[in-house]
Amino acid sequence: MTATARTAPDAPGTPATPATLVIGATGTTGSRTTAHLVAAGRRVKAGSRRAAPVPGAEPVRFDWYDPTCFGAAVAGADSVYLVPPVGDPDPAAVMLPFLDRARAAGVRRAVLLSSSAITEGGPAVGQVHGALPGLFDEWAVLRPSWFMQNFTGSHAHADSIRADGVILTAAGTGRVGFVDADDIAAVAARALTDDRAPDTDLVLTGPEALSHDDIAAVLTEVTGRQVVHHRLTYEAMRDRLAAAVPPAFAAMLAGMDRAIAEGAEDRTTDTVHRLTGRPPHAFRTVAARELTAHPARPDIL
User: Fold this and answer.
1) DSSP H/E element including 189
2) Which of 6, 182, 266, 291 is most exposed by smallest CB count within 10 Å?
3) How high is the pLDDT of residue 12?
4) pTM for this one?
5) Are strands 138-144 and 109-113 parallel, antiparallel or unpaired?
6) Which of 213, 200, 231 is CA-nearest to residue 138?
7) CB contact at 8 A, 222 and 215
8) How far apart are the C-alpha atoms of 161 and 300, rounded to whole Å?
């Protein structure tokens, strides 16, 4: 694939350069994808519920549950990065009507953020994955493994690490090819702007498969604070999650942990290297980058 040339500013009186709409532009992958696109000279419409300012981008209001904002969000866009609504067990119900509208408005390429654990036509966002090739001639589905930022950002794992020095899962000794969110964003930017769209799904991983015990050991070494992995049963994990998300979604998430324990995520791929031209970041690198960069903030870990 070859990258599209840098977009020059529009001259007065000429039609506006087509934009990429990034949904979830203030989130973990959306903010990073926006930054990559802006750095490449791409015009970006940064969609978020409050139309929050994002450096180099045009803020626009976007809420999956408010169709009245759809028209303004897609106006002038020829491509869209799709981050599904968080915690919704049936995202297709709100996403598919939007995608129909986006296509009618002139969007020709869509890149969907899914998960390595969810296949085409599977539960939740798998239904959107199944519909995407029939809606757009140019498309890609990113299926990243679990984010490394789950242990460094605002995820429940990071919260329990900061509060108690523990990681709680039902994953047992199962290994996962954890991936850096910045690597996901780098692939997303290429999938959105390369002359040829991938027109397939892409499983994204880091360079090695690690157990949660391995993750705890790396965090202990990097931060100097003891972190341990506590192994829960599927039922205990499901009930813990159900205190924060709908029961059906909690059961699905706990089921993903159980699948990890059975070896479903013990793999690595070359996708990041193949699409970006550089190897994916290792967890130790990401942990050092994100957990030692703020020495004045004791809340980091």
Assistant:
1) helix 181-193
2) 6
3) 55
4) 0.91
5) parallel
6) 200
7) no
8) 9
CB 271 within 8 A of CB 202: yes
**SS3 call for 45:** strand
Mean pLDDT of the region 198-213: 98
* Residues contacting residue 142 through CB under 8 Å, at least 6 positions apart: 111, 112, 113, 114, 184, 187, 188, 191, 201, 202, 204
| φ and ψ at residue 200, rounded to 5 degrees | -165, 180
Q: Are 193 and 3 in contact (CB under 8 A)?
A: yes
Amino acid at 244: A
Name the β-bridge partners of 211: 175
Residue whose token pair is 């031209």: 277
Half-sphere CA count of 31, side-chain side, radius 13 A: 9
Q: Both tokens of residue 76?
A: 């002038």
Q: Are 7 and 42 in contact (CB under 8 A)?
A: yes
Residue 138's CB is within 10 A of a number of other CB atoms, namely: 18
Please state, in angstroms and rounded to a whole number, the distance separating the CA atoms of residues 23 and 64.
Answer: 9
